[in-house]
Design brief:
Blueprint (H helix, E strand, L loop, with lengths): L16 H10 L13 H12 L4 E5 L2 H10 L6 E6 L3 H4 L4 H6 L2 E5 L8 H5 L12 E8 L10 H13 L3 E6 L2 H8 L3 H4 L7 E5 L9 E5 L8 H7 L8 H11 L3 H20 L6 E2 L7 E5 L2 H8 L5 E4 L4 E5 L6 H13 L2
Parallel strand pairs: 2-3, 2-4, 4-5, 5-6
Antiparallel strand pairs: 1-7, 6-7, 8-9, 9-11, 10-11
Helix pairs in contact: 1-11, 2-11, 8-12, 12-14
């Protein structure tokens, strides 16, 4: 039987009790649907507290929708989107960005999940040439799919480069809480002040049941988004249950506690893994992910007791994710099982 707390994904964790409690608190009587309830405006105000008052915020159900619909609001079908070849946008969204926006994804090779200025510049050509998809968005993931984190300076430099060429900067923030805690900064410093134009804010990976937010830092860009969200089948009728979760997460320090614990557990896992000479860690552990290469024959045996994903089969690289509810006991038991295989 697999351990109930494996290391496959922070999506696999349950809902934080404080979030469930808040959902129960709002589960009383009838309220107006589609966001005209008493709770959604309060949740939006919390976003403005964290990111700045001159923003627009829209709640959706999942991260793919936040990414795709947000990008759709800022592009036309002849545009292109520059992203890492490891970006979730490119690798794990089943072609949804291309299908729903009509835009071409232009990828940049990356070993650590980050976009480089040189990589972005390689796609900054063909402007005004009708035979070439017109670049319009640079998309970065924070923290990245490889568990690395962009510094504030790196984001600012990418934003400056994008804006110099009349492009927008999109941030896929499915794990933005983990990145913010890692950098010991505020959401505002990492986005608003760094030049981000649109953010997909993740809640599910940080203890929520469901719900993400699309944050526009220039409200003029969101002029038609309420229609885009509706056509995209992401307008929640009982929106109070998304909003309640954000109230629990952001009105206080729950988002910090959850992300901080997940990050701390990843570092603990990294340190325990280093006790085993046959395993090589391949990426800096900056958020809540550990990437490692281990002998191929041990992977399937280990997966029988602890569920996790193989990231790169060709080199036997695996990904181990920690969550807000990962414990040291989980990790110690995992390491004990690993050591028995060598």
């Amino acid at each position: 039987m697999k351990n109930p707390r494996g290391f496959a994904s922070d999506n696999n964790a349950g809902v934080h009790p404080e979030i469930l409690q808040k959902m129960q608190e709002v589960n009383v009587g009838h309220v107006i649907s589609y966001g005209d309830d008493p709770y959604t405006p309060k949740a939006i105000e919390l976003f403005k507290k964290h990111f700045g008052k001159d923003i627009d915020v829209y709640f959706v159900f999942n991260g793919t929708a936040a990414n795709v619909l947000g990008i759709n609001a800022m592009t036309q079908s002849f545009n292109s989107i520059i992203c890492s070849d490891l970006a979730h946008l490119h690798v794990d969204e089943c072609g949804a960005p291309e299908k729903y926006t009509g835009c071409k994804l232009l990828t940049v090779l990356s070993s650590d999940g980050k976009l480089s200025l040189e990589g972005i510049q390689s796609h900054l050509h063909g402007f005004g040439f009708e035979h070439h998809a017109q670049p319009k968005i640079v998309s970065i993931t924070q923290s990245t799919e490889m568990g690395t984190v962009y510094s504030i300076t790196e984001i600012q430099e990418i934003a400056d480069l994008a804006h110099q060429h009349d492009l927008y900067l999109h941030m896929d923030g499915a794990r933005i809480a983990n990145a913010t805690v890692s950098l010991d900064c505020s959401f505002r410093e990492l986005t608003t002040q760094a030049g981000v134009d649109i953010l997909s804010f993740g809640g599910t990976k940080n203890g929520m049941m469901f719900g993400e937010a699309v944050v526009f830092f220039n409200p003029s860009l969101s002029r038609d988004f309420k229609y885009i969200r509706k056509q995209g089948m992401q307008l929640g009728s009982k929106m109070r249950f998304i909003s309640a979760q954000f109230l629990a997460l952001l009105d206080g320090d729950l988002w910090i506690r959850n992300a901080q614990h997940a990050n701390t557990m990843a570092k603990y896992l990294k340190n325990r893994v280093r006790e085993i000479s046959q395993i090589r860690i391949t990426q800096p552990v900056e958020a809540n992910a550990v990437f490692a290469i281990l002998p191929k024959e041990t992977i399937s045996e280990l997966q029988k007791k602890f569920f996790f994903y193989v990231w790169n089969e060709a080199i036997s690289e695996v990904r181990w994710m920690t969550s807000y509810d990962t414990t040291k006991e989980d990790i110690d038991q995992f390491i004990q099982e690993v050591k028995q295989l060598f």
